[in-house]
Design brief:
The protein is mainly α. It has one domain: ABC transporter involved in vitamin B12 uptake, BtuC, CATH 1.10.3470.10. The protein has 15 helices and no strands. Helix 4 crosses helix 14, helix 5 runs antiparallel to helix 6 and helix 6 crosses helix 12. Pfam families: FecCD. This is Iron complex transport system permease protein. It is found in: Cell membrane.
Length: 371
């Protein structure tokens, strides 16, 4: 009677182990988020302080708090430094954090949706589609949606590219890692060729040079008036993905298992493809196509918090924000006074990481098909 009421000793041991593991996982997640939050504060401070004009960290915080209306100290900085921090560097740092966080969570979700560890917006041609849409608006001067025309066109291009890659890679109801990557590379190459053709044939020389620089990815030239849209897209994306984290976990077990658990996989994928394309389009319109952030961050943070998307998504967002802020700091200081496009530096980091992932998967024999 006692065993029937309380369970067998073995069951009790398993339950205690699960409880202990869950507690350890929560502790590790809390520590990781705390460390990343501290790193984000330090990174943002460095982004505001480092540049052609160095501003001491103490003055940075004084200027920021003064701009927010909290005059806790007597201003001891020049008006020029305040302008540099508030009007030039602060929007740039914030865009870097927003873009890095957004690309990281998009990559995390895409890897789950297509069950491919190599999936991310840049490699799957999504960024190329968004770039083509945005450049088309610039070259042809389309203003159908007013100030939002650039973001709308980038969203349409991103969604079209993602659906095209997915349809091309899917044969017999299955997708393999190799077909997905090859389809993404091929479609990205075609879209990039069309984009280059637009730039070569346009009669707006100055705009062509500006767009060419933009296609390499960069955070320069941003101002406070344009930050609300990528920030809103990021909050929307993270909010929806956190709500759908359990369904993303189900997809990792395969479509059949997810369907057995009551998930309408086709509808779920379609809705998230639209959401991810929207966020990607807005981010690309704001910062240009910046690659490999969405590839690296999910894999790195899983080493610390495991594979549960309820943990991976917020951790990847913080990690992506920290990474891109430092990449931008390096971009504007390594070859100063010349500025290197931040997309070049992320590619230098992400290219070797991509090759390492491919070698790791080849050793494991992970060219598995998904339904």
């Amino acid at each position: 009677m006692t065993q029937a009421a309380t369970g067998t000793p073995a069951e009790g041991t398993v339950q205690r182990r699960k409880s202990t593991g869950s507690g350890q996982g929560r502790t590790r997640l809390g520590v990781t988020l705390l460390v990343l939050t501290a790193l984000l504060v330090v990174s943002a401070t460095a982004g505001l302080a480092i540049g052609s004009v160095h501003v001491p960290p103490g003055q940075v915080w004084g200027i920021v708090t003064h701009a927010l209306g909290a005059d806790w100290q007597q201003p001891d900085w020049s008006r020029a430094r305040e302008t540099i921090v508030v009007d030039v560097r602060a929007p740039r740092v914030l865009l870097g954090a927003v873009t890095g966080a957004g690309l990281a969570v998009i990559g995390t979700a895409l890897q789950a949706l297509v069950r491919n560890p190599l999936a991310e917006p840049y490699l799957l041609g999504v960024s190329s589609g968004a770039s083509l849409g945005a450049v088309s608006v610039i070259v042809f001067g389309v203003t159908l949606f007013g100030p939002a025309s650039l973001s709308v066109a980038a969203f349409v291009g991103a969604l079209g590219a993602l659906l095209l890659v997915y349809a091309t890679a899917r044969t017999g109801g299955r997708i393999t890692s190799s077909r997905l990557v090859l389809s993404g590379v091929a479609i990205a190459a075609v879209l990039t060729a069309v984009l280059d053709l637009l730039l070569l044939t346009t009669d707006r020389g100055n705009e062509a040079r500006a767009v060419l620089a933009w296609t390499l990815g960069g955070l320069g030239g941003v101002n406070w008036d344009t930050l609300w849209l990528p920030s809103t897209a990021l909050l929307l994306g993270i909010g929806v993905l956190m709500v759908q984290a359990r369904n993303l976990n189900l997809l990792l077990a395969g479509e059949e298992a997810a369907s057995t658990m009551g998930l309408d996989v086709a509808r779920f994928r379609a809705r998230l493809f639209v959401l991810l394309s929207l966020v990607t389009g807005v981010l690309v319109a704001a910062a240009g196509p910046i690659g490999f952030v969405g590839l690296m961050m999910p894999h790195i943070v899983r080493l610390f918090v495991g594979g549960d998307h309820r943990r991976v998504l917020p951790t990847a967002a913080l990690g992506g924000a920290v990474f891109l802020i430092w990449a931008d700091i390096a971009a504007r200081t390594i070859a100063a006074p010349m500025e290197i496009p931040v997309g070049v530096l992320t590619a230098l980091c992400g290219g070797p990481f991509f090759l390492w992932l491919m070698r790791r998967d080849a050793r494991r024999g992970t060219d598995r098909g998904v339904a």
